[in-house]
């Protein structure tokens, strides 16, 4: 079938790697994603060989949420039709720092607004964002009265670097290791620590005139050192927006998670000037407080490619190929060692990564539903 008309004038897809270091296995996945997005857009994956400009009319696949609207306008990144990912105006907006308000009279960076947390309050867990060590101590005192807190560095991924703190004196050695400048720029999150936690993903991607939305769960696996790490995502993906997702028969906690993701996103769209994103993913935690109260709230956003993006791509391709298709189940898998791949696997990486060892990364799509 012909591809959707939106964006078909793009001349190529460019992988925009803005990170200091990208592991081999991630780079391989990014290249495969770029190639797949190019197919959707009806163009080719290109390496421009020289700094691109707006005149090139490229579509970009950034490895991170882009920061600073003026900095990226010369590349031609002005709307969500220009990239797979997101663009924000200030550094803290790209991280989980937005997920909580400041403690009273706290310091804050340029562009900070209390209005986001105020509008999104029903979608948030109890916690604070801080940009100084003094404010971290005050926030910890406020939270520890109700039980343990979780200290969350905002630039870490997949839960790395997080620590549970039971008493104020446990905070000091952790703060001592932090750089004051980085803290003032990016922030630090202190959040109530829940027990028996389940984490759900809610997301949406918009590419080449297609919109699809999903809910899903993440799996854990063990790496070669026996450490528990991200092992993949299992998604139920529908053609259309979040309202189409809410038409599915859903358990109450999933319906709540989707509505909380929508509340969080609407607050971002309203209170972050210039915010654009074609890839939106939210982690929602559900668990119990020490007092036994059930809580649900958005932990963080991802306005960039992520672990679920290979499944997102397969779903987009399936919807592009079959206009009658309304729902699919798509999954990503990260397996350490050399597994026998399922016959329906789309391989994104298989090899001996210099940092992680033998690793296979693949995606699958199944359970097609053509019903209106």
Task: Describe the protein's architecture and organization.
It is a single chain. The chain is of the alpha+beta class. Residues 1-7 have low confidence and may be disordered. The protein is built from nine helices and 17 strands. Helix 1 (24-41) runs parallel beside helix 9. The strands form four sheets. It has an eight-stranded antiparallel sheet with strand order 14-13-9-10-11-15-17-16, sandwiched between helices. The protein is 24% helix and 33% strand. It has three domains: 12-90, no CATH class; 95-124 and 126-193, 2-Layer Sandwich (Dna Ligase, domain 1), CATH 3.30.1490.20; 196-369, D-amino Acid Aminotransferase, Chain A, domain 1, CATH 3.30.470. The two termini are 20 Å apart.
Q: What is the structure about, briefly put?
A:
The chain is α+β, with helices and mostly antiparallel strands. The protein is built from 9 helices and 17 strands.
Please identify the structural class as seen in this structure: alpha+beta
Q: N- to C-terminal separation?
A: 20 Å
Number of helices: 9
**Rg, Å, rounded:** 21 Å
What is the level-2 CATH architecture name of the largest domain?
2-Layer Sandwich
Q: Roughly what fraction of the amino acids lie in strands?
A: 25-35%
CATH fold name of the largest domain: D-amino Acid Aminotransferase, Chain A, domain 1
- Count of individual domains: 3
Helix content: 10-25%
Mean pLDDT: 92
Low-confidence stretches: 1-7
Shape category = globular
Largest sheet: 8 strands, antiparallel
Write down how many β-strands occur, each being a DSSP E stretch of 2 or more residues. 17
Encode the helix/strand succession as letters: EHEEHEHEHEEHHEEEEHHEEEHEEE
| CATH class call of the largest domain | Alpha Beta
Strand order of the largest sheet: 14-13-9-10-11-15-17-16
């Amino acid at each position: 079938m012909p591809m959707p008309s939106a964006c078909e004038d793009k001349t190529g897809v460019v992988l925009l790697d803005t990170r200091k270091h990208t592991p081999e296995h991630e780079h391989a996945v990014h290249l495969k994603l770029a190639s797949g997005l190019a197919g959707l857009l009806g163009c080719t994956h290109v390496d421009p060989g020289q700094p691109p400009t707006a005149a090139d009319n490229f579509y970009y696949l950034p490895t991170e949420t882009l920061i600073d609207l003026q900095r990226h306008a010369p590349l031609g990144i002005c709307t969500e039709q220009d990239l797979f990912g997101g663009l924000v105006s200030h550094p803290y907006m790209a991280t989980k720092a937005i997920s909580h308000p400041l403690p009273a009279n706290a310091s804050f960076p340029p562009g900070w607004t209390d209005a986001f947390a105020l509008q999104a309050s029903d979608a948030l867990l109890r916690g604070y964002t801080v940009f100084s060590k003094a404010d971290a101590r005050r926030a910890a005192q406020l939270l520890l009265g109700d039980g343990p807190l979780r200290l969350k560095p905002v630039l870490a991924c997949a839960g790395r670097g997080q620590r549970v703190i039971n008493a104020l004196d446990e905070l000091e050695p952790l703060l001592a290791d932090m750089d004051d400048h980085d803290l003032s720029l990016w922030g630090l999150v202190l959040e109530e620590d829940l027990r028996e936690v389940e984490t759900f993903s809610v997301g949406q991607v918009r590419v080449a005139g297609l919109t699809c939305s999903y809910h899903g769960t993440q799996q854990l696996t063990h790496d070669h050192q026996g450490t528990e790490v991200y092992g993949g995502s299992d998604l139920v993906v529908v053609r259309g927006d979040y309202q189409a997702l809410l038409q599915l028969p859903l358990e109450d906690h999933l319906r709540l998670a989707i509505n909380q993701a929508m509340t969080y996103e609407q607050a971002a769209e309203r209170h972050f000037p210039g915010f654009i994103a074609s890839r939106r993913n939210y982690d929602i935690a559900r668990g119990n407080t020490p007092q036994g109260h059930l809580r649900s709230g958005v932990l963080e956003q991802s306005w960039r490619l992520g672990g679920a993006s290979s499944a997102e791509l397969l779903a987009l391709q399936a919807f592009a190929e079959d206009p009658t298709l309304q729902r699919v189940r798509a999954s990503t898998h990260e397996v350490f060692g050399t597994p026998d791949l399922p016959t329906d696997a789309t391989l994104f990486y298989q090899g001996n990564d210099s940092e992680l060892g033998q690793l296979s990364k693949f995606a699958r799509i199944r359970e097609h539903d053509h019903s209106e």
